[in-house]
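Lay summary. Proteins are chains of building blocks that fold into shapes, and those shapes determine what they do. In this project we predict the shape from the chain. Here is one chain we studied, written as its sequence of building blocks.
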Amino acid sequence: MSGLVLGIDAGNTKTIALIADMAGQVLGWGRAGRSNIYVQPARALAALETAVTRARQSAGLEGAPFGALTLSAAGADWPEDFTVLAATLKRWNWATRAEVVNDAVGALRAGSLAGTGVTVVCGTSAGIAARSSGGAVWHTSYWQEPEGATQLAEHALRAVYRAELGIDPPTALTAPVLAFFGCPDVTALLHSFTRRSRRSPRHLGRLARVLLDQADAGDPASLRIVQKHGASLGDYALAAARKVGLDGDYLLTTSGGVMRHTSSILRDALLARVRAEHSQVRWQASHHEPVFGALLLALEGAGVTVGETVFRRLEETCPDEALFLT
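And here is the predicted shape, written in a compact code that computers can read:
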């Protein structure tokens, strides 16, 4: 077991654990529910245990400690959060060396072979992290203002309400939003969200796809929302770059469900804002899930130099994308 490492991505929608050997061969994986300690802490920790137990079972391993582990966690924001999570990992004795990072830092490490530059994650929520070649790291955490799919969905709803009142011009968003929620008109839609017996919709963030579709089709209201949101993400990407001393030529990666939408409008607005100050910034989509970054950090923590061979072996042996779908 000392020759194996464990990487965990503890997210707002799911928890994924991967086990690999020192050569980068993935041996087992497990999945459980969300594990943000800011939301139902006991259930969050239970989800962590479940994901790791399932990964061990998948690999046919008993409970001996791993050589190293990295937990990349939503909810690892303030010093006391890291203290709680580190103490929990020590109590569970999953590895002889355990590290906790914010989930945006895990996503940053997953984005490229070097693991430096800036990453912008926009999924259910959003997060941004930066790392310089000298090792300085910073992540936005609660500094983050532009969020992900849920916030975009809220902007879409507000646009529909304003158009219904005649404050703003009519929007092509109205019909698909009503169809999405199964409401006959905008009054019924607003009522469903505000009545005393209301229930919060479980998957509000999925409405972001409708918004991005309409922006791509040229609806002015949708286009305005998406472009403004992308520019705001760019502002925070630039702030992250400044925090670690990046200026000019560096890699910016993007990941998350919103960024994977077929429309490039959000990303284009983000890049336009960043390149207005740092014109030489290079962009690439991250092709790897954040847990890939946690596994890379665990390997480095175990003393492995992650070169092309290790990186590619992880790519080749990672489980099918169905494990990561939300």
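What the prediction tells us: Strands lie at 4-10, 15-21, 26-32, 68-73, 98-102, 117-122, 126-131, 137-139, 251-255, 282-285.
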